[in-house]
Amino acid sequence: MSNKPGGAKGGKGAKLDDLYKLKHDNSGVRKRIAPTIETYKLIGFKLNEEEFVIEIERVKEIVRVPLVTRVSKAPHFVEGVANLRGDILQIVNFHKIMGLENPIISEKSRIIVLDDKNVLAAIIVDGVSEVIEVEKEAVQQTPDIVAGERSKFLKGIIKPHKHRNILWLDCGAIYSEFSAQNQKSTA
């Protein structure tokens, strides 16, 4: 038995063969294919000094904060509506939902327009930071001490990414809260 890389049983080559699949191309040559690792693409943003992410496929676009018109009898977390190229958006103040101080709109402030077929809504954020890709194993359940009452809006926490923890917002929970509040205000 050989213990050299690429050697027979017991060597590193045997372990690598277990990790990689062999595939034949049209010429009959065998190629090694690395196993696929499930990853998520997320957009990072800040609310106050806390870092959050949301799935990139849930985002229609990110734009500067437009003129927002207040609406009477709207849920407490709805800042109002805005016209974005002919579409009327409901602008959600996620700071209020998360129990954070109200934002001061600045040059860095943005709205993230959520891509949902039933609701045209956007959340106000203090700034958009980056697109990150994380492996499934990097996502943990959010500890109760961190989440508190806002746990229903969190999908999890990303294990230290570049030496920081990031909270993952749950878009489905946002839509559910939004719909429930809209039904209360119309009833």
UniProtKB/TrEMBL annotation:
Q: Name one Pfam family in it.
A: CheW
Q: Which SUPFAM superfamilies match?
A: CheW-like
What does the entry give for GO biological process?
A: chemotaxis; signal transduction
GO CC terms on record?
A: cytosol
Q: InterPro entries this protein is in?
A: CheW, CheW-like_dom_sf, CheW-lke_dom
Q: Where is the CheW-like domain?
A: 39-180
Domain of life, source organism: Bacteria
Please report the name of this protein according to its UniProt entry. Answer: CheW-like domain-containing protein
